[in-house]
């Protein structure tokens, strides 16, 4: 972790979301010296707090042609370069009796003009394809939707950036932008681990901090008009649907049900919030009510499915510069060269957009950075697979057969999570194969691999890398086991205990808005174990 | 408005989601303790079900190591039907087809009919070492196992010839589901039942053609056939219970468990109309005595020290108390209650070569208990437990009904109600 602080990087990228990690990858692949800084961990902002939907673009086809066209193009690229992060589930746009069936043909036309393939399906056949869909549907259109794991996608980008020489600092929060006259030349960071301030210098600073970019820009003395929009989602205990289910109408609340890994998600709501509230992401009772009420219309069985947790994220919407009131808000990509805009050299902002277009955003930002640095290299991120998605050597099956001896569940889960990198998970002796997380099938070997190679600082980071604690029990059985492994390899005992308390508190935060039925039983049992048996106190941290 | 507040709100219908991961089932699993290749009930059941819903490829053939003892379900404080989830997954996802061996073991009806026809030859042959070696290597039926002897005179045939007429003399009547073991291997148990029931004042009748309950078909993956037989049996039970108002009793705990619980849970065969009046003979008798409707008189000179073994399915039914209470009524009986543990045979499971070792390891604690108990013999309600215990210990095993039949003073008992 000893970075060369006197070194001047070509580019310092702020933000460890998909956009920041993608930009770091792109810059590093074009030969630039890169420093990526992130205040918490990868994918902790909007990147990790959405549906995980691999949009076909169909959702935007009628209202926003440009976004729709971008989506389908990136959708096809991600299938190629990030196949271990995505699932090609396909999606259905369902027309319910209360919806206008006339919208369907308008929708299909708009899709085809955006380049999105559609297929109108007889409702009866649609129900056979997706038995969980509402049996009352009067229309269905199949589109190439899918699911994407944002944590895996971001991590793979960061990994590849690192392979190409980029340096990465997590737990480093920007506290100031360093300037020399009208030129930005570095950042001042607060290292949360060591509790100290450090400075790094670079020719260009790229603000890829999403909604938090509002504050970053302020450090640089420029103003970006951001309008945070909060969206809440619910996670259900298991997969109810195999295909992504959408409502065939203009985008509205709670009209997408996405199957992702072992669970499915309904979302979202949409609510403008003041910029001061962007770090306070609670889910209200009304949000939960709307999500269940509308979700049941897509798939009635949601009414009798256990809810695991609720969470919310913030969309970084940007108002046009000539519209400070925010009436005409763009959902498209916003790239700002602050030299052109504000007369400030060496500082750019990439924001807006969506998870789906992170790569395109990175490409546009990198093009601008290269132009400024006078580097003439083409973008290759659309053609070269991310680490883990590389199929060239052996088939995935061969890889995992070599790795594991016994447990089929951990073997297949690891392969699903890490793709062709699964071979890096330690040799399958009985101990390494033992499960840490039983709900999600995470082995000791996989946890060790994540700790050693995937930038893990604490239990919550470990969860994003491996799904430890994301299953039905929400950490009840696995949290203490994972804490033990983490403590063995990097933490002191005292810190590990705080870390464990933090982790469980964070799990409880997501469960509290929906704490009834089996969920309240589970959390009660968890508290017996951790408070009653292990003597962990809620105020441990 | 008030009503709305108290309405259940998003409570799961999915039984597997009621699991709170307490892992008690895993502690009670007899297989996991001796065979680490088995992922255990929690992992195979509720945890695995969630993974299989993500991708059927998560189905693990190791699930066939489950004995279906249902001790996990008895242990579960959240009411998760763990055993059913595992059996259903095997039915739904297993790609391995039943082998010839499995068909032979599972088709107790057909094999029983053929074998009892040629009983002397079959009994001699399957007892011969070379034959058992061949069965071991060709069929993968473990050579340690002795097949139960087949009878030359099937229970059904005996009944029609010697017992049927006499049953009309009684005022009260029951039907008897004898099961394959009584019919093909051990008619004496059926004769004992008739003796006891007649003494109690009940005429005993056979169903209109009973078929094997199908438990072995289910565990060997022959689901279509099992479902067919289940439907047939439910109809036959209805004719007795609904039409003739005659309850059906059985001496086999597994048969009655299968008919009551596995038919609806695993085969989707509805049985509400017959479920309450289908029960074990010992429960039927105990309840009569308990309600003051029956008194039994026992021989003065009957003196035995008996150990009772609780078969897994009796544990699941919660019915062993009826059998042990009946046995305790016999004045000369000193009853030793063995700690409830699986014997390891689990029907056809223990006959399979690949399971033999697991089977014996599972049963070992029980065998030790029996050897240390210094009893005259063991009592139990399950025929396969009987084979296993007789093969693996020095003790003989008798059915509670057979013990009653020997201890009861028939004439004195009959006099009580004939007056």
Automatic annotation (TrEMBL), chain A:
User: How is the quaternary structure described?
Assistant: Composed of a catalytic GlpA/B dimer and of membrane bound GlpC.
Q: Which GO terms describe its biological process?
A: glycerol catabolic process; glycerol-3-phosphate catabolic process
List the pathway annotation: Polyol metabolism; glycerol degradation via glycerol kinase pathway; glycerone phosphate from sn-glycerol 3-phosphate (anaerobic route): step 1/1
Write down what this protein is called: Glycerol-3-phosphate dehydrogenase
Kindly state which keywords UniProt assigns to this record, in alphabetical order: Cell membrane, FAD, Flavoprotein, Membrane, Oxidoreductase
Gene Ontology CC terms: glycerol-3-phosphate dehydrogenase (FAD) complex; plasma membrane
Q: What is its EC number?
A: 1.1.5.3
State the needed cofactors, names only. FMN; FAD
Report which superkingdom the organism of origin falls in. Bacteria
Give the family, as the similarity comment puts it: Belongs to the FAD-dependent glycerol-3-phosphate dehydrogenase family.
UniProtKB/TrEMBL annotation, chain B:
Give the protein's recorded name. Anaerobic glycerol-3-phosphate dehydrogenase subunit C
Q: Which UniProt keywords apply?
A: 4Fe-4S, Iron, Iron-sulfur, Metal-binding, Repeat
Species source reads Marinifilum breve
Gene for this protein? glpC
Q: Which Pfam families match?
A: CCG (PF02754), Fer4_8 (PF13183)
| GO BP annotations listed | anaerobic respiration
Matching InterPro entries? 4Fe4S_Fe-S-bd, 4Fe4S_Fe_S_CS, Cys_rich_dom, G3P_DH_GlpC_su, Helical_ferredxn
Which top-level group of life is the source organism from? Bacteria
Alphabetically, the GO molecular function entries are:
4 iron, 4 sulfur cluster binding; metal ion binding; oxidoreductase activity
Q: What region holds the 4Fe-4S ferredoxin-type domain?
A: 10-37, 54-85
Q: GO terms for CC?
A: glycerol-3-phosphate dehydrogenase (FAD) complex; membrane
């Amino acid at each position: 972790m000893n970075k060369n602080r006197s070194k001047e990087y070509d580019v310092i990228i702020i933000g460890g979301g998909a956009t920041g990690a993608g930009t770091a990858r792109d810059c590093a692949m074009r030969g630039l010296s890169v420093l990526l800084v992130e205040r918490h961990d990868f994918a902790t902002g909007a990147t990790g707090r959405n549906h995980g939907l691999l949009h076909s673009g169909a959702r935007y086809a009628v209202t926003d042609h440009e976004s729709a066209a971008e989506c389908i193009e990136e959708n096809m690229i991600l299938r190629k370069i990030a196949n271990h992060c995505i699932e090609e589930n396909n999606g259905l746009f369902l027309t319910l009796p209360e919806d206008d069936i006339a919208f369907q043909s308008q929708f299909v036309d708009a899709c085809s003009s955006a380049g999105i393939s559609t297929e109108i399906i007889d409702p009866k056949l649609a129900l056979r394809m997706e038995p969980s869909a509402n049996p009352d549907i009067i229309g269905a259109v199949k589109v190439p939707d899918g699911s994407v794991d944002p944590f895996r996608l971001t991590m793979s980008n960061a990994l590849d950036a690192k392979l190409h020489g980029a340096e990465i600092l997590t737990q480093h929060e920007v506290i100031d932008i360093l300037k020399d006259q009208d030129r930005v030349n570095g950042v001042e960071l607060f290292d949360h681990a060591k509790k100290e301030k450090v400075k790094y210098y670079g020719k260009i600073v790229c603000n890829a901090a999403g909604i938090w970019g509002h504050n970053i820009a302020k450090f640089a003395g420029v103003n970006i008009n951001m309008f945070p929009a909060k969206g809440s989602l619910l996670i259900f205990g298991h997969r109810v649907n195999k295909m992504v289910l959408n409502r065939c109408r203009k985008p509205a609340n709670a009209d997408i049900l996405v199957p992702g890994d072992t669970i499915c998600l309904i979302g979202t709501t949409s609510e403008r919030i003041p910029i001061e509230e962007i770090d306070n992401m609670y889910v209200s009772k009304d949000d939960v009510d709307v999500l269940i009420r509308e979700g049941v219309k897509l798939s009635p069985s949601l009414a009798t499915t256990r809810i695991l947790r609720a969470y919310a994220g913030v969309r970084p919407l940007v108002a046009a510069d000539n519209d400070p009131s925010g009436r005409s808000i763009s959902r498209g990509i916003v790239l700002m060269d602050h030299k052109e805009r504000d007369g400030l050299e060496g500082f750019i902002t990439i924001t807006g957009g969506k998870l789906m277009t992170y790569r395109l955003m990175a490409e546009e930002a990198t093009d601008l950075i290269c132009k400024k640095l006078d580097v003439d290299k083409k973008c290759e991120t659309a053609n070269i697979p991310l680490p883990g998605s590389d199929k060239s050597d052996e088939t995935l099956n061969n890889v995992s057969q070599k790795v594991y001896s016994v447990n089929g569940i951990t073997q297949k889960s690891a392969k699903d999570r890490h793709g062709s990198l699964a071979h890096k998970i330690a040799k399958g002796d009985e101990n390494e194969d033992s499960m840490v997380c039983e709900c999600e099938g995470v082995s000791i070997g996989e946890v060790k691999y994540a700790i050693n190679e995937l930038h893990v600082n604490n239990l919550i980071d470990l969860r994003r890398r491996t799904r430890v604690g994301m299953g039905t029990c929400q950490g009840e059985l696995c949290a203490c086991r994972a804490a033990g492994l983490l403590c063995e390899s990097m933490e002191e005992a005292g810190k590990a205990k705080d870390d464990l308390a933090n982790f469980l508190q964070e799990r409880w935060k997501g469960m509290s808005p929906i704490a009834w039925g089996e969920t309240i039983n589970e959390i009660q049992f968890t508290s017996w174990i951790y408070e009653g048996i292990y003597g962990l106190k809620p105020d441990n941290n | 408005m008030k009503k709305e507040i108290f309405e259940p709100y998003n409570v799961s219908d999915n039984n597997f989601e009621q699991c709170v991961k307490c892992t008690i089932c895993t502690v009670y699993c007899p297989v996991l303790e001796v065979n680490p290749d088995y992922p255990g009930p929690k992992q195979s059941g509720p945890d695995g079900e969630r993974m299989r819903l993500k991708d059927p490829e998560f189905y693990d053939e190791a699930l066939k190591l489950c004995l279906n003892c249902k001790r996990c379900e008895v242990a579960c404080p959240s009411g998760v039907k763990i055993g059913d989830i595992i059996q259903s997954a095997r039915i739904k996802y297993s790609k391995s087809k039943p082998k010839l061996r499995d068909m032979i073991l599972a088709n107790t009806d057909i094999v029983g009919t053929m074998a009892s026809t040629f009983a002397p030859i079959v009994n001699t042959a399957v007892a011969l070492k070379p034959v058992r070696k061949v069965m071991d290597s060709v069929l993968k039926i473990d050579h340690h196992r002795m097949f139960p002897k087949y009878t030359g005179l099937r229970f059904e045939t005996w009944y029609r010839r010697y017992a049927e007429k006499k049953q009309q003399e009684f005022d009260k009547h029951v039907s008897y589901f004898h099961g394959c073991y009584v019919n093909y291997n051990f008619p004496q148990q059926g004769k004992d039942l008739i003796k006891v029931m007649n003494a109690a004042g009940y005429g005993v009748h056979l169903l209109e053609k009973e078929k094997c309950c199908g438990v072995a078909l289910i565990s060997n993956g022959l689901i279509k056939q099992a479902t067919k037989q289940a439907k047939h049996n439910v109809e036959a039970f209805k004719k007795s219970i609904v039409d003739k108002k005659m309850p059906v009793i059985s001496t086999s705990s597994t048969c009655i468990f299968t008919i009551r619980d596995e038919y609806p849970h695993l085969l989707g065969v509805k049985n509400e109309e017959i479920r309450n009046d289908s029960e074990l003979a010992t429960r039927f008798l105990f309840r009569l005595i308990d309600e003051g409707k029956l008194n039994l008189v026992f021989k003065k000179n009957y003196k035995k020290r008996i150990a009772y073994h609780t078969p897994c399915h009796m544990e699941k039914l919660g019915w062993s108390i009826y059998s042990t209470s009946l046995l305790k009524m016999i004045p000369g009986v000193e009853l030793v209650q063995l700690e409830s543990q699986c014997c390891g045979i689990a029907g056809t499971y223990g006959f399979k070569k690949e399971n033999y070792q697991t089977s014996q390891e599972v049963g070992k604690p029980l065998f030790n208990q029996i050897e240390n108990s210094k009893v005259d013999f063991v009592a139990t309600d399950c025929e396969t437990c009987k084979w296993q215990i007789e093969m693996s210990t020095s003790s003989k095993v008798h059915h509670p009904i057979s013990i009653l039949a020997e201890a009861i003073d028939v004439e004195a008992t009959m006099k009580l109600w004939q007056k």
